[in-house]
């Protein structure tokens, strides 16, 4: 083989190695976040007091998932500059050079339009419009505006992640009542302590990227106390939801146990010092963050269990 042929083969192999794979494009959709969107939307759909045809239900969740993925792609497109700086995100498809920013934007816009139109056709236009508003809120209000301008970014912006169960409910019923907004409030109040715990042991990332997370603007001590306050309010809301139309004995049991554990973790975090944090590498904060993932899953799982058992006279308080 000549040197020219060898060099051409090497360049071709390198080009292929650098090309984006299906996995890279799928990563643009933030599959972990999408899984939470899908699950909470599914709970909202099934908890609604209106039976939904399985095909319609499948289509509704599919298009909500696509809408969530579209939001993720547009978020990565806009945040490519800071993702390149942060250790937690520098391996994402755009900072790593696997996917071009323009590609991500095009994919995000195309999937946004597809998901909104198809959800409207499959269920009702109220649900489709609500999905469109959710995508707008996450991309424009949170990503483009709040994230880089205020330490309340995750508080206000958390509404975007709290809308999916409402969308699921609206897809099933075409209307709103108190119950979907209780599910919204549960996710909305859970979001700040969840992300602030992450920010406590990832603060250097936000410092380097210039993102005004509460840990950066007000310090770790203030963040710890904010976590405690929000956790207390969350516990009151979560336990109170037990006595609503989506609650019941199963949910009440989960709410009491999980909120006791969550309050304990928040109390431990609030009484720590900078020296404590550096000494044990933020073990308490990491444990609280992991618990927060289980917290939301079990609460929505309990709501789903109550809804599925209700036709048999076993769910709810009836």
Automatic annotation (TrEMBL):
Complexes and interactors: Interacts with CtaA.
Catalytic activity: heme b + (2E,6E)-farnesyl diphosphate + H2O = Fe(II)-heme o + diphosphate
Organism listed in the record: Ruegeria denitrificans
Note: Carbon 2 of the heme B porphyrin ring is defined according to the Fischer nomenclature.
Keyword field: Cell membrane, Heme biosynthesis, Membrane, Transferase, Transmembrane, Transmembrane helix
Pathway: Porphyrin-containing compound metabolism; heme O biosynthesis; heme O from protoheme: step 1/1
Its membrane topology: Multi-pass membrane protein
Enzyme Commission no: 2.5.1.141
GO cellular component: plasma membrane
Protein name: Protoheme IX farnesyltransferase
GO molecular function term, any single one: protoheme IX farnesyltransferase activity
């Amino acid at each position: 083989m000549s040197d020219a042929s060898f060099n051409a083969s090497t360049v071709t192999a390198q080009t292929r190695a650098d090309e984006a794979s299906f996995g890279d494009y799928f990563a643009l959709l933030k599959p972990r976040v999408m899984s939470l969107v899908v699950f909470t939307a599914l709970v909202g759909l099934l908890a609604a007091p209106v039976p939904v045809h399985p095909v319609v239900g499948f289509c509704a969740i599919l298009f909500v998932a696509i809408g969530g993925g579209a939001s993720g792609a547009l978020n990565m497109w806009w945040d490519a500059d800071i993702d390149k700086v942060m250790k937690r995100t520098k391996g994402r498809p755009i900072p790593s050079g696997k996917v071009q920013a323009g590609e991500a934007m095009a994919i995000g816009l195309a999937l946004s339009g597809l998901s909104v139109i198809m959800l409207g056709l499959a269920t009702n236009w109220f649900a489709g419009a609500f999905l469109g508003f959710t995508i707008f809120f996450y991309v424009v209000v949170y990503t483009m505006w709040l994230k880089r301008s205020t330490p309340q970014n995750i508080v206000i912006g958390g509404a975007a992640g709290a809308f999916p169960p409402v969308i699921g409910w609206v897809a099933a019923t075409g209307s709103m009542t108190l119950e979907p907004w209780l599910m919204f409030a549960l996710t909305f109040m859970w979001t700040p302590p969840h992300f602030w715990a992450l920010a406590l042991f990832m603060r250097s990332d936000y410092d380097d990227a210039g993102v005004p997370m509460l840990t950066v603007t007000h310090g770790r001590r203030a963040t710890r106390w904010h976590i405690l306050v929000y956790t207390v309010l969350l516990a009151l809301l979560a336990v109170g939801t037990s006595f609503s139309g989506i609650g019941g004995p199963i949910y009440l049991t989960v709410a009491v146990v999980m909120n006791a554990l969550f309050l304990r973790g928040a109390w431990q975090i609030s009484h720590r010092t900078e020296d404590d944090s550096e000494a044990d590498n933020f073990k308490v904060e990491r444990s609280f963050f992991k618990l927060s993932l289980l917290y939301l899953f079990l609460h929505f799982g309990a709501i789903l269990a109550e809804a599925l058992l209700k036709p048999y006279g076993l769910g709810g308080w009836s």
